[in-house]
Design a protein that fits this description.
Strand order of the largest sheet: 1-4-7-10-13-18-21-23-24
Number of helices: 3
Number of strands: 24
CATH architecture: 3 Solenoid
CATH superfamily: Hexapeptide repeat proteins
Distance between the termini: 58 Å
Helix content: 10-25%
Amino acid sequence: MRRKIRSAWVRLWMRWAGLSRMGRLATRLAAWGTPSYKARSYLARLNEHGFVAPDASIVHSDFQRGKHVFVGERVVIYQAYQGGTVELDDGAHVHRDSIIETGQGGSVFIGAETHVQPRCQFSAYQGSIRIGRGVQIGPYCSFYPYDHGIAPDNLISKQPIRSRGNIEIGDDAWLGVGVCVLDGVRIGKGAVIGAGSVVTADVPDYAIAVGVPARVLKSRMDLVSSAAGENEATMPRGQLR
């Protein structure tokens, strides 16, 4: 009985959850008594506009959400001077303590069903960040589509920033813990980037890349070919097709 009452309470308040003052209050009441972190992910399915944690900080005039997005505890979405759009597509999840920031010349798009694990940093200045569909981004990853000047005749704090171009991550890619992606880089569809790598150049579709700077070791397609070869080697000749 207690579980049914709790479920009815959550569903009631999630109907009114949103980013307005009353919507944030309704979100807080819905989340009251619910365990934190990923235990709250299901709340995003109870409202077409999803779930934005009560202690998430949304300081952005052009924050756009698809259906059933999840924004976790202490996430910050911030718009600096002339910052562009931040858009989370349907079912995107951004977990606790991640920061998404846009400034002049930058925007961020995170595709449908992409999951961003805790403490990631997206800083879109001079260039944009576009993450595809179904991407898995490990904790402590960072994305910087710009670089900072280091000329010796000026203070570092006064140096201009510049960009070689946008960052683009293809659908179904996987970035391990602590990956750093720099300006002008495209990571291809289905690519895998090893933990702690710094990506300074394009990574092809389905490639596996690791290191500082990241280097391509092999293709995921090679794994398929190797597995097929092993199967053929162990099968009776009459069964080969």
